[in-house]
Amino acid sequence: MKSHILITGATGNVGTEVVRELQRKGIPFRVGAYDTAKAATQLKTAGDIVLFDFLDPGTYSSAFEGIEHVFLVRPPALSNVERDIAPAIQAAGKAGVKHIVFLSIQGVENNRVVPHYKIEQAIFNAGIQYTFLRASFFMQNLSTTHASEIRDQDEIALPVGNARTSFIDVRDIAAVAVCALTDAGHANQSYTLTGAEALNYDEVAAKLSAKLGRLIRYTHPSMLNFIWRQLKAGQTLPYTLVMTALYTITRLGNASIVTTDTQQILGREPIRFDQFALDYRQSWERQAAIPG
Fold it and tell me: 26-48 in b/e burial notation, b at 16+ Cβ within 10 A?
């Protein structure tokens, strides 16, 4: 069966789960990847994987050929939307793409600084039907991006103070994305996707401590301390500033809102943090020392 769905960001947290969900449902799709070999290895498939690079218009035609629906993820390294991402969106429309499901962020409509806002506007201005998945903070960011500080230092060092976050499991985001890509009724809709509860990071640390059997602390770092640590760890300044802007949203309390969008679309309660911590416990467990 011919692929009418293109998945970008397929090797990321959400994209990987979107691929798994489509495979589980037996729905054909195409993966557009900057590194096709990595995508084939990580996704364990030799299926329809084509070269797609936002910065190379020469890759657009083969990626968009015959495609009607696109799952769009912003590459973290690209923050200049007009220069680096809008051309691909415009090319998608010219190639006949009818619908873009874009992985956006919670509260983006009130934060014009982040690239996600500009991407939403670029899709709207291109005249393509859209579904904006305005997702809260991913639970899996704690098991990937921030896993090492939890595993090796027993701490969470994010600059959000006592604010609460309505964390969502990426498996739920992926399930919603597949519904939007394959079911009717989601065109030109914006969904704020959250979990079923809002937690502060002291509560998150306590839950991880309970699952891991050792004390995990939330250190309440300042914004400047967070920026310094990110740059020291080798992150680029543009990436660090985008991350700081996102955590500023959280610190101001804008990530604490719990919605019913996820539950209404999926027909079930979102995955809770305790279940996530149990499922991903291995991410924070230290390797036992091998006797010499």
Answer: eeebbbbbbeeeebeebbeeeee
